[in-house]
Amino acid sequence: MSLGKRRLLISVQELRDEVKNIVELQLWIQLFNLGRRFNMFAFKIYCITMTIFFASIGVYRIHYSLFDAIMYLGISFQLTTAYVTIFDKAFAAPANIQKFKRKILITAKLMCFRDAPLICRRIRAIPNIGFLVGDFNKLERASSPNFIIFVVLNTVRVLISLKH
Fold it and tell me: Where does the sequence pass through the membrane (predicted)?
Protein backbone atom coordinates (compact mmCIF):
# COMPACT_ATOMS: atom_id res chain seq x y z
CA MET A 1 0.00 0.00 0.00
CA SER A 2 1.22 3.45 -0.74
CA LEU A 3 -0.15 6.13 1.53
CA GLY A 4 1.08 8.76 -0.89
CA LYS A 5 -1.75 8.00 -3.31
CA ARG A 6 -4.91 9.99 -2.83
CA ARG A 7 -7.40 7.29 -1.94
CA LEU A 8 -10.67 8.13 -0.31
CA LEU A 9 -11.03 4.93 1.70
CA ILE A 10 -8.29 3.01 3.41
CA SER A 11 -9.35 0.01 5.42
CA VAL A 12 -8.31 -0.52 9.00
CA GLN A 13 -6.73 -3.82 7.97
CA GLU A 14 -4.49 -2.04 5.43
CA LEU A 15 -3.28 0.34 8.13
CA ARG A 16 -2.65 -2.56 10.50
CA ASP A 17 -0.69 -4.34 7.77
CA GLU A 18 1.45 -1.24 7.29
CA VAL A 19 2.09 -1.05 11.04
CA LYS A 20 3.23 -4.69 10.92
CA ASN A 21 5.52 -3.86 8.00
CA ILE A 22 7.14 -1.03 9.93
CA VAL A 23 7.61 -3.25 13.00
CA GLU A 24 9.19 -5.91 10.81
CA LEU A 25 11.50 -3.37 9.19
CA GLN A 26 12.60 -2.07 12.60
CA LEU A 27 13.30 -5.65 13.71
CA TRP A 28 15.41 -6.20 10.59
CA ILE A 29 17.43 -3.07 11.45
CA GLN A 30 17.93 -4.35 14.99
CA LEU A 31 19.08 -7.72 13.63
CA PHE A 32 21.46 -5.97 11.24
CA ASN A 33 22.84 -3.93 14.15
CA LEU A 34 23.44 -7.08 16.21
CA GLY A 35 25.36 -8.82 13.46
CA ARG A 36 27.02 -6.06 11.47
CA ARG A 37 27.70 -3.05 13.68
CA PHE A 38 31.35 -4.00 14.08
CA ASN A 39 31.68 -4.55 10.33
CA MET A 40 30.29 -1.05 9.78
CA PHE A 41 32.82 0.30 12.29
CA ALA A 42 35.67 -1.55 10.57
CA PHE A 43 34.51 -0.22 7.18
CA LYS A 44 34.41 3.32 8.57
CA ILE A 45 37.95 3.02 9.99
CA TYR A 46 39.19 1.42 6.77
CA CYS A 47 37.72 4.22 4.65
CA ILE A 48 39.17 6.93 6.88
CA THR A 49 42.63 5.39 7.05
CA MET A 50 42.94 4.47 3.39
CA THR A 51 41.49 7.76 2.15
CA ILE A 52 44.03 9.73 4.18
CA PHE A 53 46.83 7.41 3.08
CA PHE A 54 46.03 7.49 -0.64
CA ALA A 55 45.30 11.23 -0.71
CA SER A 56 48.59 11.97 1.06
CA ILE A 57 50.59 9.70 -1.22
CA GLY A 58 48.81 11.12 -4.26
CA VAL A 59 49.63 14.71 -3.38
CA TYR A 60 53.18 13.76 -2.39
CA ARG A 61 53.76 11.91 -5.71
CA ILE A 62 52.62 14.81 -7.93
CA HIS A 63 56.21 16.06 -8.30
CA TYR A 64 57.58 12.60 -9.16
CA SER A 65 54.95 10.90 -11.32
CA LEU A 66 51.73 12.51 -12.45
CA PHE A 67 50.24 9.12 -13.40
CA ASP A 68 50.87 7.70 -9.91
CA ALA A 69 49.45 10.83 -8.30
CA ILE A 70 46.25 10.66 -10.34
CA MET A 71 45.90 6.95 -9.57
CA TYR A 72 46.28 7.45 -5.80
CA LEU A 73 43.98 10.46 -5.75
CA GLY A 74 41.43 8.47 -7.77
CA ILE A 75 41.50 5.65 -5.22
CA SER A 76 41.06 8.22 -2.46
CA PHE A 77 38.10 9.73 -4.31
CA GLN A 78 36.51 6.29 -4.79
CA LEU A 79 36.84 5.48 -1.08
CA THR A 80 35.29 8.83 -0.18
CA THR A 81 32.42 8.21 -2.60
CA ALA A 82 31.85 4.71 -1.19
CA TYR A 83 31.77 6.02 2.37
CA VAL A 84 29.43 8.89 1.60
CA THR A 85 27.09 6.73 -0.48
CA ILE A 86 26.83 3.86 1.99
CA PHE A 87 26.49 5.96 5.11
CA ASP A 88 24.06 8.46 3.58
CA LYS A 89 21.83 5.61 2.39
CA ALA A 90 22.01 4.02 5.83
CA PHE A 91 20.95 7.29 7.44
CA ALA A 92 18.05 7.76 5.02
CA ALA A 93 16.31 4.51 6.01
CA PRO A 94 15.35 5.53 9.59
CA ALA A 95 14.30 8.99 8.38
CA ASN A 96 12.01 7.43 5.76
CA ILE A 97 10.54 5.11 8.38
CA GLN A 98 9.76 8.14 10.56
CA LYS A 99 8.09 9.86 7.63
CA PHE A 100 6.00 6.78 6.89
CA LYS A 101 5.00 6.52 10.56
CA ARG A 102 3.76 10.12 10.44
CA LYS A 103 1.72 9.35 7.31
CA ILE A 104 0.11 6.38 9.02
CA LEU A 105 -0.72 8.49 12.08
CA ILE A 106 -2.35 11.18 9.97
CA THR A 107 -4.24 8.64 7.86
CA ALA A 108 -5.45 6.77 10.95
CA LYS A 109 -6.75 9.97 12.52
CA LEU A 110 -8.54 11.02 9.34
CA MET A 111 -9.92 7.70 8.11
CA CYS A 112 -10.35 5.35 11.04
CA PHE A 113 -12.04 7.22 13.85
CA ARG A 114 -12.87 4.17 15.94
CA ASP A 115 -9.52 2.35 15.60
CA ALA A 116 -7.30 5.45 15.48
CA PRO A 117 -6.23 5.35 19.17
CA LEU A 118 -5.06 1.74 18.88
CA ILE A 119 -3.15 2.32 15.64
CA CYS A 120 -1.61 5.54 16.99
CA ARG A 121 -0.52 3.76 20.17
CA ARG A 122 1.10 0.95 18.19
CA ILE A 123 2.92 3.41 15.92
CA ARG A 124 4.22 5.46 18.84
CA ALA A 125 5.43 2.26 20.55
CA ILE A 126 7.78 1.49 17.64
CA PRO A 127 11.22 2.77 18.67
CA ASN A 128 13.31 5.04 16.49
CA ILE A 129 16.25 2.84 15.58
CA GLY A 130 19.17 3.81 13.41
CA PHE A 131 22.11 1.85 12.10
CA LEU A 132 24.91 1.42 14.63
CA VAL A 133 28.61 1.82 13.91
CA GLY A 134 30.31 -0.21 16.64
CA ASP A 135 28.92 -0.24 20.16
CA PHE A 136 28.87 3.47 20.80
CA ASN A 137 28.07 5.40 17.66
CA LYS A 138 24.89 5.81 15.61
CA LEU A 139 24.88 7.08 12.05
CA GLU A 140 23.84 10.69 11.82
CA ARG A 141 23.28 13.12 8.99
CA ALA A 142 26.59 14.84 9.80
CA SER A 143 28.60 11.63 9.26
CA SER A 144 29.54 12.37 5.63
CA PRO A 145 30.55 16.04 6.03
CA ASN A 146 32.48 15.16 9.20
CA PHE A 147 34.24 12.37 7.30
CA ILE A 148 35.34 14.71 4.52
CA ILE A 149 36.52 17.40 6.94
CA PHE A 150 38.42 14.83 9.02
CA VAL A 151 40.09 13.32 5.95
CA VAL A 152 41.14 16.70 4.55
CA LEU A 153 42.56 17.91 7.87
CA ASN A 154 44.50 14.72 8.48
CA THR A 155 45.77 14.57 4.91
CA VAL A 156 47.14 18.09 5.35
CA ARG A 157 48.73 17.05 8.65
CA VAL A 158 50.42 14.06 7.03
CA LEU A 159 51.67 16.20 4.14
CA ILE A 160 53.05 18.82 6.53
CA SER A 161 54.83 16.13 8.53
CA LEU A 162 56.34 14.67 5.33
CA LYS A 163 57.65 18.06 4.21
CA HIS A 164 61.45 18.10 4.36
Answer: 41-63, 69-92
CA distances from 86 to 10, 47, 90 (A): 35, 11, 6
Count of the separate structural domains present in the chain: 1
Please write down the HEC assignment for all residues of 53-100: HHHHHHHHHHHCCHHHHHHHHHHHHHHHHHHHHHHHHHHHHHHHHHHH
Q: Which residue has the higher pLDDT, 160 or 11?
A: 160
The answer as to whether 5 is a domain residue is: no
Range of the domain at 64: 12-162
Per the model's pLDDT, the better-predicted residue between 134 and 41 turns out to be 41
DSSP letter for 5, please: S
Distance CA 73, CA 75 (A): 5
Beta bridge partners of 152: none
pTM: 0.69
Least confident window among 25-29, 68-72, 91-95, 133-137: 133-137
Half-sphere exposure of 133 (CA within 13 A, CB side): 17
